[in-house]
What we know:
The complex is a heterodimer of chains A (224) and B (209).
Chain A: H1 10-18, H2 22-34, H3 36-50, E1 58-62, E2 67-77, E3 81-85, E4 104-106, E5 122-124, E6 127-134, E7 139-144, E8 148-151, E9 154-157, E10 161-165, E11 180-181, E12 192-202, E13 218-223
Antiparallel strand pairs in A: 3-6, 4-5, 6-12, 7-11, 7-13, 8-9, 10-12
Helix pairs in contact in A: 1-2
Chain B: H1 17-33, E1 64-69, E2 85-90, E3 106-108, E4 111-118, E5 123-128, E6 132-135, E7 138-141, E8 145-149, H2 169-172, E9 177-187, E10 196-208
Antiparallel strand pairs in B: 1-4, 2-3, 4-9, 5-10, 6-7, 8-9
Amino acid sequence: MRSVAFGPQLKVASRFAMASTAHETSDWIHAVLMSRQSLLMWGAVLLLSAAGRASAESTLTTGAGASAADLNFRVVIPRVLFMALGSGSATNPLVTNTTVNRATFNYSANPQAIGTGAAAATMTGRTVRARVYGNNGQITITVSHPANLTSGANTIAFSQFSVVSNSPTNLPAPAFGGGTVNPVLGAGGRITNRTANWTYSYANTVTPPAGTYNGQVTYTASMM
Amino acid sequence: MPPTPRTLPLQPRAAPPWRLGLAMAVAFAALLGAPRVASAESAHTVGSGPSAARLNFRVLLAHTLFLGVGTGATVNPRATNGTVDDVIFDYSANQNAVGTGAAPSQTLGASVPVRVYGNRGQITLTVSHPANLTSGVNTIPFTQIQVTSSSFFFPAPAMGGGPVLPWRNFFGLSQITDRSATWTFTYLNQFNVPGGVYQGQATYTASML
């Protein structure tokens, strides 16, 4: 019995010649291929042939052995920085919100308290939810504002206002007049995700002319 | 009296022992020396009677195992292909969705054609990968990437999970396995991770007895 054989199958071919039936031949193939020496030989051949093909997307393997294919994964996470004060801080997921909230200190119901340091009879929106989120390291929050709130030509100094945070460690509020704070980073040192309530007060230590005094404060978060 | 003419036998005679030994020796030499030469027998018969010559045929089908993930899976005939495809989850246009579980606004290559072929029984398919996709020192666990298969007969091994067994043909009765499917990858997006491009490579390995 003859065999067309190549490479390491030469031994197999010679054993084929000793088999008298197809069944025996099949048994020989099985026995030879599964013998320990053959397995070692096949393993060595496959290791050599597999070298350099580890990154193949598709692999056609002839003979015994494994076939491997690689696939690359990529997740693109952009640098994100989010700062919100008021209505915008409540949205999830984070999204730009153009609503500007207002904190109002109204002495219309207790005008006799003007300049006494007493609180206004009516105060709305003075407790504001703040949120800051960033994913690229330490965030710094600064506050900027004009010198005064104005009512026509009359003014009240912005320094009459103060603010406290109910989370003074993790998300303190920067003080008027150029304060700067650094919210505490989360574990890993790259992510900041803090919320707090900032409550504003009016010192009411001056006696300005009657009027509605307006002014706007801008909080700016920056990150590396 | 004229000599009696020599007559040749009309029927083949049994080969004497020396001829049998010679034939075995020739066969053995042929096996060792010319394994790629096909064998054809010839018989010379003088006079009437049949003359027979036999020819052996053999088809040698090598054990074949093929695994294609991505572009190479669709090539016919099956062949090794060195291109490694990319699956990209890009939150650049919806950065507010990072960590919320929402899908990225842009996903590229997430549906991947796959094919496995083997001709020697059950194939086992495994996936290996590092623990994390990395962007510098920052990481995303590979288990944040999930996969589903379009074919019940050709499931996809989960990241960090065990092997899968593609169904052999004819409902598992055949020695042949030839399965194709589309694997679809998704990113769970459960973590707020630092900005960056996180990359990693998974290797799928098919093995067959």
